[in-house]
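User: Hi! Is it possible to get a structure for several chains at once, not just one? Here's what I have:
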Amino acid sequence: MSSAGSPFSSVFRRRPWTRGLVHVALILMSLVFVFPLLWMLSTSLKSIDEVMLVPPRWLPQTFQWRNYIEALNYIPFWTYTKNTLIACTLAAVGTTLSSALVAYSFTRLEWPGRNLLFGLTLATMMIPFPVVMIPLHGVWKALGWTGTLRPLWVPAAFGTAFNIFLLRQFFQRIPRSLPEAMMLDGASEFQIFIRIYLPLSKAALAVVAFFQFTYTWNDFLAPLLFLTDQQTFTLPLGLDFYRSRLGGTQWHYLMAASFLTTAPLVVLFFLLQKWFLRGLSFMKNVD
Amino acid sequence: MSTRRTCLIICAATLLGMGVLAIKAAPVLAGDEPGRPVRVTYWDKWGGAEKNAMQAVVDDFNSSQGRIFVEFMSISDIVQKTLLATAGGIPPDLAGIWAANLVEFADKGALQPLDELARGTIVNRDRYLPVYWNMGVYKDRLWGVPSTPATTGLYWNKSLFRAAGLDPERPPRTIAELDEYAQKLTKVENGHIAQIGFMPAEPRWWPFFWVNFFGGRLWDGEGRITLDDPGNVRAFEWIQSYPKRYGVAALQDLSSGFGDFASPQDPFLSGKLAMIFQGVWLANYIHQLAPGLDFGAAPFPALHAGGPPVTYVDSDMVVIPRGAKHVAEAFEFLTFLSRQSSLEKLNLGQQKNSPLREVSDAFFANHKHPYIHLFQDLASSPGGVGQPKMSLWWEYRREIETVFQRVWLMQATPQEALAHGNARMQKAWDQARARQGLPVWRWLSVVPFLLMGLTVVGLVALVAVRRVRARRRIAAAGAGGGATSVRSNLSVLRGLLFFSPWGIGLAAFLAYPVMASLVYSFCDYSVLTPPRWVGLANFVDLFTDEVFWIALKNTLLYVVLALPLGLVFSFFAALMLDAGTRASGIYRTLVFLPSLTPIVASAITWMWIFNSQAGVLNHMLGKLTFGLLGPVPWLADPHTALPSLVLMSFWSVGQVVIILLAAMQDVPTALYEAADLDGAGWWRKVWHITVPLTSPVIFFNTIIGIIGGLQLFIQPYMMTEGGPARATLTYTMRLYQNAFTFLRMGYASAMAWILFLVILGLTAAAIRVSRSRVHYT
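Assistant: Yes, the chains can be modeled jointly so their relative placement is included. Here is the combined structure:
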C-alpha cells in the first residue's frame, strides 16, 4: 500500500498536512461504519430498562451476559446454527467445485457452442429470484424436498453464474503454455485442471467459497418460502421468528441474537482475510 | 481416449456424490411403523402461557390412549406456513388458523371438509355458540372447529379516570361520551402528548371493525362490496376526528413510544392510553405484566344511548389441511378437544371465554378475569359480529388497513379513501369470481418443457450455422491453413462434460422455472389447483393496478437514490483508502465489516437505531444540531421511510469499496507521475486517470447494483411491512404478497417477468452508455 500511486501523492508531498486531513476523514468514516455494530453489542448487554432510557446510555452499567443465555434458550439456536452450517458448507463446497469445472470448460477447453453458452451463463445473472421462486416451489414439491434444507444448497452446488464468471476471469490469467510439459506426458485435461489450475487459483477459490458461504448464510427469501418445519429453520429465519415472537420491545435479546448471527461470518472473514484480499484483486478485471 | 474416460468417471462421481449428499443431508422423515403410535402433527400460533395451555390439552389426549401421539408445535406466521406446506404437499395434520382465513383456505381447496368425519360425534352445532360454530361453516360445509374464541369490549384504567375527575365506575355509554371522556383523559406536556384518553388506531388489528358501531357494512353478503356505505363514512369521519383534534405529527410522536402488545410497554398497560377496545384475553396480560393496574371492562359504547351492545367476535379455528396424512387420527384429537372439559381447560389456560353453549360453574369460578361473565354473555348476545365470510377477505382487510392509514395520516378524506378502496376491491372480486369458471387445461404443464426443447434446438442450430460459416471462411481463405480444424483443442464431449454440473443446474433450477413462470404469467394459478389460461388478463390487470405502480415507483426511486449516491460514496471512500496511510488496512476492514452483517441482523439493528423516541440516531442528531432538529420520525412517516432505507443501504457498501480499492491500486503509478509533470491537480488526476481506469469495475457494480436494488425485499418486509401507507412497499414485496399471501401465482409470475424485462432494459441501457464511457485496457 504505497502512497506513490495515488492521485493525492503530489498533494501530500507539497502540503503534508493534507495527509492528516485524509486520516481524519478515514477515522470518521470508520467510526460511522462500526458504530451500528458497537451499538448492537452495547444494547445486547443492557437490561431492558436501560435499553429504553432516554437519552440513551453508551455503555451498559452492568454487563448483562444473561441476555445471551436467554437469547440462546429462547429459540433452538444451536439447531438453527447447525442447519445454517450444513446448508452453507454444502453450498460453498459444491459451488466451488462445480463452478471451477465449468469455468475450466469456458477457459481452456474449446468446444462448439462454448462462447454462446458462456454468454447465456452471464445473461442468467439478470434473472431475478422472483421469476424462478414460484416454479421452484413446484420443483421441490415434485422432488419431495419441500421443508428440507436441500432447496437452499442444491441449486448453488451445481454452480452459479457469478462464481463461474469470477473463476473464468482468474483462469484466463493462467498462461495456456503452462501445462505443456504435462500434456507431453499424456496428462488428461482433468489432471491439468486438478494439478495446475486448482492449486494456482487457491485464493480465487477461497473468495468464491466465502462469497457463497455468506450468501447462503444471509439468504432469507428462499428459506422463508421453502422451509416449513421449524426444526429446519436457518439462523436468519430464526432471527425473524424471534422478532415476531418477542415483539419490538425486547431489543436486548434481539441484539444479542443479531450479534450471534453476525459473529461467525466476521470470524470466518478474519480467518480467510489473507486469501480473501489476494483473491479479490482479480475481480477488478471485469470485461 | 483415457482422458475422456477419466473425465467421464470423475464427472459421474461428482454428480453421484452430490446426489448422495442431497439424500443424506436431509432429515429423514419419520415414517409410520407398525406397532408404534401414529404421529399427528399439529401446528398452532401461540407462544408462552397460551402455548402451554394447549400443550396441556394435547398431553391429556396423548396419555388418554396409546394409538395416536399428537406432536404440538408453535409456528410463527402460521397462515403462510400452513399454505406453503399444503402447496408443497407436506401439510401438518392439524393447523390452528384464524377464522379470517378459513373461507379463503376452503375456497382455494386447501382444507379437508369435516362433515363426514363429524357425523355422529360430539363435534356438532348444537353444542357450540352459533357465532363461533358458523365461523367454520362455508358453502354449507364444515371446514374448521373453534378452539379459543374471543369477544371484545371497552377496558378502562380506573386510576386515570380518578385522576381526571371522572367516576371510575361509570364507563362511557355512547360514542359521543367516549370522545368527551377521551378529551378529559388526554394530557399534553410541553407540546407532547403524554397520555391520551382513547385512540381508534390502538390496537391496529381491527381497523375494519369500527364501521359496525356506526351501522356500516362491508359487503352485501352476495357479490357487492359496500365499503363506501354511508355508515362506513360516518365511522371513518369519527376516526379522522382524532388526528384532526390532536394533530397527525403529535399522534405519530406519541405512538412511536408505545411498546408492543404483550409487553409492559404496551400503551394501556403502561398507562399512556386510558381506554382501549380489546379482547377478553387482555386481563390475562394485565395480570402477568401490570398486576397493579386497576381496570374495568364494559361493552363498547353504542352510537346512541340505549342501543344494543355491539361486540367483535373472533376465534382460532383448528382445521385439517388437504393432503394431511392422518385425517382420521387428526379428527379424533378434534373430538377430544371438543369435549367441554378440554375446551374449558384450554380457555381457562388462555383466559378466554368458552365457545360452547354450556359453561360449567367451575369455569367461571376458576377464571381470573374479573369480568368473565360479561365477555361470556357478549358471546351469546345478538350484537356479536365477526368478519365477512368472503374468499377475498384477507386482501379486502389489507385494503381497509390502507384506507385506515390514509385517513389516520390525513392523506385523504374518508369519502375519497373509502370510494377508492371500494372500486379496487369490487374489481378484484369480480375478476376472481369470473375466473373460477374457466376450464383447466392439463397440457399447460408440458409447455415449459416444449419451450426448453425449442431453446435447445435453437442453440444447437445457431452453433451449427456458425461453424459452417467459419469452415467456409477458412476454405475461402485458401490453401494457407490446409486441413487444420477451426480450433485446436476441440472436443464437444469433453467440453460438455466439464460443463455438465452447471448444465444440469441451469436446466433444472433456471431454465425450467423461467419457462414455467412465463406460462404461469398467462394463467390464473394458486398452486393448490391446476393453472387456468387467462391470456393477457394478468398483464392488463397489473397495468391498471395502482399498487403495482406504487411498488414500481418506490423501487425505482430506491435504486435511483441508493445506487448513484452509494457508488459515489464508495468511490471516494476507496480513493481515500488508496491514498495510503499506514493504518489503511484497519480502516478497510472496519468499512468492510458491515457488509458481512446478515441483512436480517442489520435490519433489526437499524430498526432500533431509527426508533424515533429511544433511537440513538435522533439522540445524536439532536446533540449535533444543539436541539435544532427535532426527532425525525424515520420509518414511521411516509415521507422519510424510503429515504431511511436508502440511508441504511450506504452502510453496507463495504464490498463495493474493497473491489474499487483493488482496482485503484492497479492503476499504474507512471500515469500519475506523468500527470504531475503536466502540473495536474488531484481532481484532474482522479477524473482523467482514476475514473477511466476503474470504469469497468464501476460499470460492473452498477449492473449488480441495479439487479440487487430492484429486488429489495428483506428490509421493507422486516422493518416496515411496506408501510406506512405503502411508502416502502417494494416491487418484490408486493410480488411476494401476491404469490404467497393471496396465492395469486399467475399474477405474481406476470409481475416477476415484468421485473425481468425491466432489469434487461436497464442493463441494456447501461451497456449502451458504457460503450462510450467505459475504458477497457
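Confidence is low (pLDDT under 50) at residues 24-31, 481-488 of chain B. Chain B touches chain A through 152 residues (CB under 8 Å).

User: Great, thank you!
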